[in-house]
Amino acid sequence: MRCILVGIKTGKKKDSELKSSLSELEGLVKAAEGLTLGKLYQKREVPDPSTFIGKGKIKQLRELVEGIEADTIVFDADLTPVQISNIERLTNAKVLDRTDLILQIFSQRAKTKQAKLQVELATLQHELPRVYGQKGKSLSRIGGGMKTKGAGEKIGEIKVRTIKDRISKIKKELTKIKRQRYQQRKWRVSDPDVLKVSLVGYTNVGKSTLLKRLTKRDTFISDQLFATLDTKTSFISFPEINKKVVITDTVGFVKDMPKELMEAFMATLEELKEADLILHVVDISDNNWHEKLKSVDRILEKMDLEDKPQVIVMNKIDKVIPSEELIEDSSDRIDGRDVVVVSTEKGWNIDKLRNILMEYAGRKEIAAGGG
Question: Do the domain assignments include residue 178?
Answer without folding.
Answer: no
